[in-house]
Amino acid sequence: MKIGITIGDPAGIGPELVLRTIPRLKGLDKYLIFGNKKMLRRIARDLRLLKDYSSIEPCIVETSKNVRFEYGKSTKSTARVALQSIQHALKSGVEIIITAPIVKTTMRSIIPDFIGHTEYFAGFFGIRDYAMTGLWRDKRIMLLTIHSPLRRIFRKLDSRMVSRKIVLFEHGLQRYFGIQKPEIAIAAVNPHAFEFSLGEDEKIRGVVGALRKRGVRVSGPFPADTLFTRRFDGFIAIYHDQAMVYLKSKKNGLNFTLGLPIIRLSPLCGAALDIAGKGCAELSGFRTAVKVGKKLYTNMRNYDRTLFDK
After folding, report:
1. Residue 15 and residue 8 in contact, taking contact as beta carbons nearer than 8 Å
2. How far is CA 93 from CA 68, 125, 263, in A?
């Protein structure tokens, strides 16, 4: 098992998360940190973490030039450092990648159509069927659509796409979480589900019925405002904020990219430019991402081995 760590935008809290988390983990020889030694050493000096830096220096893979930057001020140069960290991690052959936060606005100064880590990773691997999946404790929430304007979501909700995503999620719950016959609940598009539906929720209900006949244990659609209080193995949100309002209200929420040939996780936090360089970033999400990443990888290997043995 090799675990790749990207440093994110150096003007944000990404390097701090790495410097304060990775040195305290066991088995440092398993980790590859993709960044720049001089930049990380400077940040470690500013945060009084030179001892921590020394312990992980052998793990650092040089992926970019040393650039000047100011904490809290993301630029085209810092975005390029973040991008090169991601690119080298993807090409390295590691089985798990934990991504530190980037700043999307400056990333778009390099890649104009950049949307996010999820889409970039899927594009790198040429994956068509993938999904952003939020994790918090035993809650697993897959997003049917990701970073789409609400006006466009209704055009995307064709029956084939909904069916394909549900099947993808079922397989993901089996492969990564060890749930043989997962029970899945899907959210409604509209408030109170069918009360205000203009046909969207009826379409989802039709897909649910067809899949249940095929043995997929999916139910719904349910009103999204109370969905996550129910007991299911997995939940499907129709659009980004249905899931993220819930997940980001919790501590240690994670973003898992379902459908990739590797494990990719990140904490549900941004670059936090307002507190960068102050040494006060919350570490628990990043630490949890590493822990969960190892568990998902082990589950995946066990699942694949079982299929091979059959």
Report:
1. yes
2. 30, 12, 12
